[in-house]
Amino acid sequence: MFVYEVPADATDDLKKKIADLVSQQRTRSEDDGSYQKVLSGISLAIRKDSNSGVIIAEEAGEVHGIAFYNLGISLPLGGPYLWLNELFVRENSRNKGIARKILLHLIHWAEREGIKSIELETGINNSVTKHLYNSLDFHDIVSQRYQFNF
């Protein structure tokens, strides 16, 4: 299993494989999750001038897992933080440590880059991912998330 950040010059084939996986995951959400929007988002996220990135776990030409993140600035921390938007592993690839490998890759990269914090959100009843995050020393922050759509 090879875990790496998707480069700006990724092939269209790789972008489509990532979009296929993300589209599988997005079917459970309230947004329309259209394939073209996902593909466009991937292309924007991996651009060299982007404050976003995509990390994948790949083996034998198949994408088994993905993490998508954005970088921001935290005033209280006095520096950059990483917001983990998505972490998803293909259903038939779960329980094999792939999400852990992706997260460890992200944690080590963030530490090298001087990132002050990694933040994310998960479902209240999602005990599997909570266990994963807690096992890697993430801790709960009580908050309420709001959204405004155009």
Radius of gyration: 15 Å
Q: Estimate the global geometry from the Cα principal axes.
A: globular
- Tell me the strand order in the biggest sheet: 1-2-3-4-5
Helix and strand run: EHHEEEHEH
Give the rounded overall mean pLDDT: 91
Domain N-acetyltransferase: 1-150
Protein name: GNAT family N-acetyltransferase
Pfam families: Acetyltransf_1
Question: Can you offer a commentary on this structure?
Answer:
Helix content is 33%, strand content 27%. The chain is α+β, with helices and mostly antiparallel strands and 150 residues long. The protein starts with a strand and ends in a 15-residue tail after the last helix. The protein has a five-stranded mixed beta sheet, with helices on both faces. It holds the Pfam family Acetyltransf_1. InterPro entries: Acyl_CoA_acyltransferase (IPR016181), GNAT_dom (IPR000182). Residues 1-150 form the N-acetyltransferase domain. This is GNAT family N-acetyltransferase.
Describe the secondary structure blueprint for this structure.
Elements: E1 2-5, H1 12-26, H2 35-45, E2 52-59, E3 62-74, E4 79-89, H3 98-112, E5 117-120, H4 127-135
Helix pairs in contact: 1-2
InterPro entries: Acyl_CoA_acyltransferase, GNAT_dom
Protein name: GNAT family N-acetyltransferase
Domain N-acetyltransferase: 1-150
